[in-house]
Specification:
Blueprint lengths: L1 H19 L1 H12 L3 H17 L1 H10 L2 H21 L4 H15 L2 H12 L5 H12 L1 H5 L2 H9 L2 H22 L14 H5 L7 H8 L1 H19 L3 H29 L3 H21 L6 H14 L3 H9 L7 H34 L1 H23 L8
Length: 393
């Protein structure tokens, strides 16, 4: 199983890469095939939405047929096929279809590992293991920054995507060969997503689950690139370095969040304080104002958003503590649906918002409005989450 978990982690490296690599390709894609940042925001949103929609069948498949076949088949067809389609893209339509396929392919990887953790490890260790998997897998976030920018310059973005397609296929075949499905749950009780949604204890957690991941995902996955290019005139390589800094911060935040609930004896207040600091970083980015501050300060604020916005695994851990065993797979995928779906909706919404404000008030104001919207939404989620319960006891 160690080899299987290692390959699931490598699959999650690919997932993190694919959700973030568009930020450093915005200039070359505009030059080569005329795809604009707003088009890429829509394509990025399609990745998140297709990923989110797949959480429902993925959750069912994890509980019924196990993580081995679920993860390997989808990554083979979606990840390998989608990356290959992207490599030959000549229009925004091709990129949209490719990103949808890749989203489908990546959809089961992290949840397959979370399902194994929920079924085979003590509940108290779930948050630490989940954060560790997310943190190590977030190396893909780093590869999608400066290394991807460098690869695009050295061998071209098309050759890079061909290589990624081949890697996806190899990892999928490895998952099929090495992952072992947990023993079936002893509790044969049937259930569905509706049983989870009827659990009132989850209701205050769900809004923050929807909102918390959106700012770091949307900014790191796309908007940091056009922002630093439009406002500060950074090159593709320099944008790659900035996204690398934000990616490192996201990994650091993920690894720090993991053990904090055991150290401080509370999951709820670790989540609240972390997201408060993320909201403050967003508002400081608004107050700094385009061109008013040095680019290093701006990159530091992006890094802070990445660090404090990395509460995704510990929020899932909070919700997971309330799931019955026979719904473990559908429970973790339901939470992932809300998180990834929220990020996808944010990408769909921010593209038109950016375009509209740019036309009416200029590009500087457009980015300010984006950051303000993310900060206000996060505060809204935090306020609702204040009414959540720490545990059932």
């Amino acid at each position: 199983m160690r080899a299987g978990l290692a390959l699931l982690c490598l699959g999650y490296v690919l997932s993190q890469f694919f959700r973030a690599f568009l930020a450093v390709l915005s200039q070359v894609l505009e030059r080569d095939i005329g795809v604009m940042p707003d088009d890429l925001a829509f394509a990025s949103g399609l990745w998140f939405v297709s990923f989110a929609v797949m959480q429902v069948p993925v959750g069912w498949a994890l509980d019924r047929i196990g993580p081995r076949r679920t993860a390997s088949v989808l990554l083979l067809l979606g990840g390998g096929g989608g990356a290959a389609l992207f490599a030959v893209a000549t229009s925004s339509l091709h990129i949209n279809l490719a990103m949808m396929l890749i989203g489908v392919g990546c959809s089961p990887v992290l949840m397959a590992s979370y399902y194994i953790f929920a079924r085979q490890f003590p509940p108290a260790r779930f948050a630490t293991l989940a954060a560790l998997m997310l943190g190590v897998g977030s190396v893909g976030n780093l590869v999608a920054s400066y290394p991807m920018a460098l690869a695009a310059e050295l061998v071209g973005w098309r050759a890079s995507l061909v290589g990624l397609s081949l890697v996806s296929i190899v990892v999928a075949l490895g998952l099929f060969a090495t992952v072992k499905d947990p023993e079936p749950a002893q509790d044969n009780t049937t259930g569905s997503l509706f049983d989870l949604l009827k659990m009132r204890v989850l209701w205050p957690i769900i809004p923050l689950m929807i909102i918390a991941y959106a700012p770091p995902a949307a900014l790191r996955g796309l908007w940091i690139g056009p922002y630093l290019t439009d406002i500060y005139g950074l090159t593709t390589a320099q944008v790659g370095q900035a996204t690398l800094a934000m990616g490192l911060a996201m990994i650091g935040g993920t690894l720090c969040y993991g053990p904090l609930n055991r150290i401080f004896g509370t999951t709820k207040w670790v989540i609240i304080l972390g997201n408060v600091f993320c909201a403050l970083a967003l508002f400081l980015l608004v107050l700094a104002g385009p061109r008013d501050q040095s680019v290093l300060l701006v990159v530091a604020l992006f890094a802070a958003i990445g660090f404090f916005g990395a509460s995704f695994p510990i929020i899932i851990a909070h919700a997971q503590s309330f799931f019955p065993q026979h719904l473990a797979g559908r429970g973790v995928t339901l939470m992932n649906l809300f998180a990834i779906g929220g990020a996808g909706l944010a990408q769909f919404g921010t593209g038109p918002l950016h375009s509209a404000v740019t036309v009416s008030s200029g590009v500087d104001t457009a980015y300010t409005v984006l950051f303000l919207a993310f900060g206000a939404a996060l505060v809204f989620g935090i306020v609702i989450y204040l009414f959540s319960r720490e545990s059932l006891s």
